[in-house]
Amino acid sequence: MVGSPFGAYSQWREQRRGFYTKWEEDMLMVAQALTRAEVGWIRQHPELLRNVRPIEGLIAPEEIEFASRDWHGACDAFHRHAANRSKEVQRVMRVHRDPFEPIMVILEADSPLAEYRKITDEILKRMPDEDRYPRPAAEAVRSFLMLRLGLHLGLRQKEPPPAARLPAWSFSDA
User: How far apart are CA 20 and CA 10, in angstroms?
Assistant: First the structure.
């Protein structure tokens, strides 16, 4: 069956978690892009087949033989399989977790800036010794500076209106 390696892997993930997520659908979309006619990277590299060996229950010798005879046909077949499977997964997939969950404490706080300040304080408290551990210390300093610069400079969700972006002076005034 075309696409059996993906099928086995995605079924393993589904059995482990109990449902499909956006991750499996995204993986199928990448598989489609890699096998797309004329531009797909895998489609452009039939020499990859030289390293493929049968794996019982995963890749049959007949599938390898088919791909050897007609590489583009095999890519077309997999591309169709990935497109159909993607639609099936889209119908049954669930949201695995709320993407805002990790930052919900900050979003719900009375003072989100104070919560970020606690993070920078914790970074300083746990700062490694720069003489014994120079790289981890440098990474901690980078994390500290990124958060503090973000706090002081303010990060906007969207651009200010055009009037707010205009400078108060121009070269013609000089």
Answer: 8
Inter-residue contact 84 to 78 (CB < 8 Å): no
DSSP H or E run through 126 = none
Q: Which two tokens stand for residue 113?
A: 């800036």
What digits encode the pLDDT tens for the residues 38-57?
999 999 999 999 999 998 88
- Beta bridge partners, 55, equal 59
Between CA 120 and CA 127 the distance in angstroms is 10
**How confident is the model over 95-133, as pLDDT tens digits?**
767 777 778 888 888 988 888 889 999 999 999 999 999
**What are the extents of the domains in the chain?**
4-92, 101-155
What does each C-alpha distance from 119 to 16, 46, 115, 151 come to in angstroms? 34, 51, 7, 11
Cβ of 78: how many Cβ atoms within 10 Å? 23
Closest CA to 75 of 28, 40, 26, 27: 40
The model carries a pTM of: 0.53
Q: Collect all residues with Cβ–Cβ distance below 8 Å to 129 and sequence separation of at least 6.
A: 137
What are the residues facing 59 on neighbouring strands? 55
Half-sphere exposure of 34 (CA within 13 A, CB side): 13
